[in-house]
Amino acid sequence: MNKMISIVLIDDHPLAINGIGAWLNGTDRFVVSGAAKSLTEAAALTEKLENLPDIIILDISLGPEDGLDFIPILKEICARRNAPMPDILVCSMYEDPFLVQRAIDSGARAYVPKSAEPGEILAAIDTLLKDGVYINPRCREKAPKQPWPKLTHRENEIVALIKQNMSSKQIAKRLCITIRTVENHLSHIYLKTGAASREELLEM
After folding, report:
1. In CATH, what class is 153-203?
2. Strand, coil or helix: what is 99?
3. CATH 1.10.10.10 in the chain, residues?
4. pLDDT digit string (tens) for 41-69?
């Protein structure tokens, strides 16, 4: 009998967790070891599990939180437990190439939009199990109109949130900074990218 692949789901939408979870369990190949809907819950779950999962399916938007912020938290937990890092499969409603690249740069090795067929998640998982990298073809084809300049970590965070259609007030709350600081960062981003507005950033 083949070993069951353990998976943890991190998503703030119960329908997504229940739907993907039921589908995975129904394949007789995977076992869902747990689910979380916030960074705090995800950290507590991975600390509590006796064995870390083989794969984590992670959403980018966890309510007001950035799901990609869980990856460095997970790295710290793995280092503390002297455990191998689970493979990260990002499953998000966003198909923007900037966010795809940010996910890969953060440490994810697969990216599948929520609009994809369930079979594509299976293809992505199988690629991860073979130590490969999987990016949805549609996302891969959406190459940026021009190369992104070198942005700071904070500037990258702000661009990512803008591409999630968040206002300056929402970004300030998410990042625990003032609206004025957000606007200052935006000025630097516009200067580096040549964009004149949020709308132009969204199109890049």
Report:
1. mainly alpha
2. helix
3. 153-203
4. 999 999 999 999 999 999 998 887 889 99
CB 189 within 8 A of CB 195: yes
**Long-range contacts, 107-112 (Cβ 8 Å, 24+):** 107/71, 107/72, 107/75, 108/58, 108/68, 108/71, 109/133, 109/134, 110/134, 110/135, 111/135, 111/136, 111/139, 112/136
User: In terms of residues, how long is the chain?
Assistant: 204
In this prediction, the residues of the chain whose per-residue pLDDT falls under 50 are none
CATH topology of domain 5-141: Rossmann fold (3.40.50)
Q: What is residue 133's predicted lDDT score, i.e. its pLDDT?
A: 92
pLDDT at residue 108 in the model:
94
Which residues, at least 6 apart from 31, have a Cβ–Cβ distance to it below 8 Å?
A: 4, 5, 6, 7, 25
What are 101's two structure tokens? 């690249």
* Residue 145, burial from CB neighbour count under 10 angstroms (0-12, 13-18, 19+): exposed
